[in-house]
Amino acid sequence: MERLLILEDGSVYKGTAFGSDNFQIGELVFNTSMTGYQEILTDNSYCGQIVLMTYPLIGNYGVNRDDNESIIPAVFGFVVKDYCDEPNNWRSQETLDAYLKRVDIPGIYGVDTRAITRKLREKGTMRATLAAPDADVEEIVHTLKETDFLHDQVKRVSSSKIFPIPNRGKKVVLMDFGAKMGIVRELSKRNCDLIVVPYNTPADVIMGFHPDGVVLSNGPGNPEDVPEAIETVRQLIPQTVVFGICLGHQLISLACGAKTYKLKFGHRGANHPVVDLKSGTVLITSQNHGFAVDIDSLKNTRLEMTYQALNDKSCEGVQHKDYPCFSMQFHPEASAGPLDSENLFDHFMDVLEKENHYA
């Protein structure tokens, strides 16, 4: 069955349908990872977006129960060049098509993903939607141009209630802005006694748990769309250890007086080189973000840049000069991607031990 991918500039790409028929308007972005499509689909940082994979062959190892990064995926659509409907892998439990139908995500394959990627690199990300072959393209393009990007993505994917993930180690509060399960896995692996809280939980409630530290998770959208979280982080920084990942990194920067800006087409993939400015070590990192911290705006804050992207020289990490607070724009938990920066969770544990707030 035919399906259309329609962009706000009027471009129309014809392909073959797979997945569901739940068509929604989203921001079309591309990911350069060669593997990890299941983790990408279930990464809640993609809430409100239609993901295009630049690697051509997708679906060849199927979908399994263990590699999800969320229970309910929030991506709005999936675009690939070649779809494999006969996966061959010992861990495979269902095809990608069956999975997309089950979680109500529409997909399209057989389109020129290279041409679309080049367009996005030139013009930047843009609104798009999948549609039936007989859709009124002119009307859809008009709607795309008139539709604003979402501003409530974090609310959509954050936990609605406080809940524990018990253990016997350091007590850590995880602020959930759309947290990947990989972050939970890494903290649990280090015996952290976790308490997961919604994105809008006040600082006094968080500190009421007497945490040894707080982790600010990844999440979707513009960090300025969650001003209540920025204020919470501002209050937390002088009181406890604060570790931010991706959106958490941006929130720390905003809370300390820096600024953020929207990247032209974002960083999304598992092969982004980042340099540690202190040691000079280069890490290959997994990334997924459309906003970045303005380096010049750090000059008027108590933050210093610790990591920098080698591709475009954007800010990839900061550290507070006065408090045990640090963050990175990339994903140390990977999922999918290389584990070059996994030891940053160990660094977090070392800082918790050193601060020893509640021995």
Topology:
Layout (H helix, E strand, L loop, with lengths): L1 E6 L4 E8 L6 E6 L5 H5 L7 E5 L3 E2 L18 E4 L1 E2 L12 H7 L3 E4 L3 H11 L2 E6 L5 H10 L6 H5 L5 E3 L5 E6 L4 H9 L3 E6 L4 H5 L5 E4 L10 H10 L4 E5 L1 H9 L4 E17 L5 E12 L9 E7 L5 E6 L4 E4 L14 H13 L4
Parallel strand pairs: 3-4, 4-6, 5-7, 6-8, 11-12, 11-13, 13-14, 14-19
Antiparallel strand pairs: 1-2, 1-9, 2-8, 3-9, 10-12, 15-16, 15-17, 17-18, 18-19
Pfam families: CPSase_sm_chain, GATase
Catalytic activity: hydrogencarbonate + L-glutamine + 2 ATP + H2O = carbamoyl phosphate + L-glutamate + 2 ADP + phosphate + 2 H(+); L-glutamine + H2O = L-glutamate + NH4(+)
Subunit structure: Composed of two chains; the small (or glutamine) chain promotes the hydrolysis of glutamine to ammonia, which is used by the large (or ammonia) chain to synthesize carbamoyl phosphate. Tetramer of heterodimers (alpha,beta)4.
Describe this structure in words.
The model has no long low-confidence stretch (mean pLDDT 97). By secondary structure, this protein is α/β, with parallel strands linked by helices. The protein contains ten helices and 19 strands. The chain is 23% helix and 31% strand. The radius of gyration is 20 Å and the shape is globular. α8 packs across α9. Strands 10-12-11-13-14-19-18-17-15-16 form a ten-stranded mixed β-sheet, sandwiched between helices. Strands 1-2-8-6-4-3-9 form a seven-stranded mixed barrel. It has a two-stranded parallel ribbon with strand order 5-7. It has two domains: 149 residues, 3-Layer(bba) Sandwich (Glucose Oxidase, domain 1), CATH 3.50.30; 202 residues, Class I glutamine amidotransferase (GATase) domain (Rossmann fold, 3-Layer(aba) Sandwich), CATH 3.40.50. It is an enzyme of class 6 (ligase). One of its GO terms (molecular function) is ATP binding. Its EC number is 6.3.5.5. It catalyses: hydrogencarbonate + L-glutamine + 2 ATP + H2O = carbamoyl phosphate + L-glutamate + 2 ADP + phosphate + 2 H(+); L-glutamine + H2O = L-glutamate + NH4(+).
